[in-house]
Amino acid sequence: MTDSETKQSSLISSRKASDSGLEIHLHPLVLLTVSDHITRHTLRQRKEPIVGALLGQHNGRDLTLEHAFECQVVHGEQGAILLHQTWFQTRLQQYKDVHKDPELELVGWFTMTPSTGPEIQHVPIHQQIIYDYNETAVLLAFHPTDVLAGPSQGGKLPLTIYESVYEGTPRPSKAVEADGDRSMDVDSSDGPLDIKFRELPYSVETGEAEMISVDFVARGGGNATNVDTPAKQKGKEKVSNDSRGQEAKTLNDSSMLSPEDEELITSLTTRANAVKMLNTRIQLLKTYLTSLPPSYLSDVSASNGDTNEDNPSSSLPMIDHSILRSIQALVNRLPLVIPADGAAFEHESLAEKSDVSLVALLSDLTRGTKNIWEMGRKFNVVNTAKQRSKAGRSMSALFDDDSDAQFGEQIMSMDEPYE
User: Fold this and answer.
1) What is the pTM of this model?
2) pLDDT tens per residue across span 335-363
3) Cα–Cα nearest to 67, from 14, 104, 13
4) Can you give the chain as a three-state secondary structure string?
């Protein structure tokens, strides 16, 4: 174990996981803000650390993380990283003025840490927040190493939420001598209080407005296209005109997607991700069950003697009967999902599919009939206009110069009185 890992593990509380009953509700808008901030910070190659504030509500033992924003940092004494006090107070007040119903407050902050936990440089800024703003502030630690390692088993998010606790450091016993006599040993376990971090369980909670934003982000990723920036294109070799035209044509074809295509891509992507998640969860349950003692897989009555609760050093996994009961309940519900009569279910599914296809065919037939009727109406209008134009030209031919003179003489003769 390296020195850095030792320092990181020393900040994690040695006590068991938090049993204080504090429930953390994490909203997707916080995840989007954190990921956006980290992405822009990485692409711009900034050197300063990633620090941001978390806003939410604290009602009893329920803590919600609803909004987040990035923060400016300064270097204090001995290189400690701290918040820019004036800037942070102004920005925090602006967010409070905007979010008044419901009223939000500062409930924590976020940063990037290794998977082993917070580091020494994270302590000063955490102490600044709990001393000046909120003594129960939590820390949302994002783990970039988990992202680079690929998707985790079970679909766990690459982040951890910690609460801060103060624990005393035990001091060794001292022998106090006075006037040449050795007095009794003084054993004091109450050393100086050091800040420690303890992991908190959390759940993801989504509101109606956040569902709209998440759906918009998912739709935007359906037709996203990778376009090289001019800075990257300068270092590339020149290509021929034919290849450039082909690439431009491919780019235009891939980026011009209709709304129906985007919706179809989003729907298929969502279903594919759901199937992958289901497969991952099934494999996780299968791995857990296969790692149990053989008696749990063969004879339930003989499973009482193979637990490792009394022997923590055993290589067998810790038996959790609540998990086993949940798995058994899930298996018992499988017959409700699988139809009893497979042939009848297949026949009914085929009948419904035929009905849907018939309705679609009738819809196409009705649409085609309407188009034919519209074409006939337009043809009738054009034909009538042609006939009127032809009749007009034939009438104008009757009134040439000679015809006009004869017609005038006839009219004059009709005006003379009879003798």
Assistant:
1) 0.53
2) 777 777 778 888 888 999 999 999 999 99
3) 104
4) CCHHHHHHHHCECCCCCCCCCCEEEECHHHHHHHHHHHHHHHHCCCCCCCEEEEEEEEECCEEEEEEEEECCEEECHHHCEEECHHHHHHHHHHHHHHCECCECEEEEEEEECCCCCCCHHHHHHHHHHHHHCCCCCEEEEECHHHHHCCCCCCCCCCEEEEEEEEEECCCCCEEEEECCEEEEEECCCCCCEEEEEEEECEEECCCHHHHHHHHHHHHHCCCCCCCCCHHHHHCCCCCCHHHHHHHHHHHHHHHCCCHHHHHHHHHHHHHHHHHHHHHHHHHHHHHHHHCCCHHHHHCCCCHHHCCCCCCCCCCCCCCCHHHHHHHHHHHHCHHHHCCCCHHHHHHHHHHHHHHHHHHHHHHHHHHHHHHHHHHHHHHHHHHHHHHHHHHHHHHHHHCCHHHHHHHHHHHHHHHCCCC
d(CA 141, CA 162) in angstroms, rounded, equals 8
Residue-wise pLDDT tens digits, 4-15: 444 445 777 776
- Of 63-72, 288-297, 314-323, 338-347, the one with minimum mean pLDDT is 314-323
Cβ-based neighbour number of residue 141 at 10 Å: 22
- pLDDT confidence bin for 370, thresholds 50/70/90: very high
By the 8 A CB rule, do 202 and 26 touch?
A: yes
Convert the pLDDT of each residue in 186-213 to its tens digit: 444 455 667 888 888 888 888 777 777 7
How far is the C-alpha of 41 from the C-alpha of 43, rounded, in Å?
A: 6
For residue 125, give every residue at least 6 positions away whose Cβ sits within 8 Å of its Cβ, in sequence order, or none. 51, 73, 80, 81, 82, 83, 109, 111
What count of other Cβ atoms lies within 10 Å of the Cβ of residue 291? 11
Name residues whose C-beta falls within 8 Å of residue 109's C-beta, 6 or more positions apart in sequence. 51, 52, 53, 54, 71, 125, 126, 129, 137, 139, 140
78-90 residue pLDDT tens:
778 888 889 999 9
More confident residue, 219 or 240: 219
